[in-house]
Design brief:
By secondary structure, the chain is α+β, with helices and mostly antiparallel strands. The protein is about 20% helix and about 25% strand. It is built from 6 helices and 21 strands.
Amino acid sequence: MRARTCLALAATAVAVAAAASSATTATADTTGSMSGAKAILWPTTGAPAAAPTPSPTSLASNLIFHGGAVEHTPKVFVTYWGTEWKNGFHTGPNNAYSNRTAMTYVNDFFTNVGGSPWNGTQTQYCDNIAPGSTSCDGNPLAQYITNPSKVLGGTWVDGTAAPATIVTSGLAENLTQDPIATEAVRAAQHFGYVPDATYFVFTPPGHAATAYGSVYCAYHSEVTNVGGHGIRYAFMPFTPEQGAGCGGNSVNTKNDAFGHGYLDSYSLAGGHEYAEAVTDPDAWPTQDGWNDAQTSENGDKCAYFHPANITLGKYYFAVQPMWSNEANAGAGGCAMSRGTGAAPVPSSVP
């Protein structure tokens, strides 16, 4: 599901973008930047049903390449935006979870997700092939998504104050400024611009945002660059405060000190947005990577469908399966790792 609106950022965002451009050797020209359409992770109460197992003779449910680009060597840069991340907070049941607990959970997830079988599901997709394709097989010029062992490129605690209510252009209510897109440009300035990166913006608990919780849990988008690739970013509000509505305790019913249970939604929603940004990163003028005939992306099609724990490094994390075109002998399905698999979905498990 998407809001199909492309809106101009305020002059402040453009100015920061120009600074980011001059700070790196390979940068996006963000002059006249616009915030592209948002690819939204719905709350469980408003989510469409996950895609059913398609007929073995039908490719109607599979993802289609729309002629754009993918992230070939995925990278994630994480920004924790808000004074609370710097000064500290406690939240959750019995105030047991601190800013450091939350940051450790997120950092460990992205530090270890690279090279995992779950992350490898995306490696069947590519660009530089004919629009309308549903497979990269047999295309000698195909440029595939890879599964590098190191995905997390860096973290940054931006201790500047985040608005108490973040009014974004995600659903077109605000025609002048998108604070999350502006912060993503600041992040690109801080870390340097990497075309294959997704810049995640995490905001603290207690901060409202336009339609957050009622219409979306998280989303990814792009600060656009007319004529080239822009800054791909994802907005991650403090989803654990939404509880089951955004997947909290959906895999791990009991909470523990590391964050299993209460922080499940951080890896569920974070993994969802990351995988979608890798396979369908651009938002201007349209989402032109891999999505299906209804414009649903690989995460959308399997949202909240048989989520499970996977082991990454020393810990385990709750994630959802991702849509795999090659699963079920090419009919497609929701998969936790790459492989052809057999019905029913998920076609493979951790």
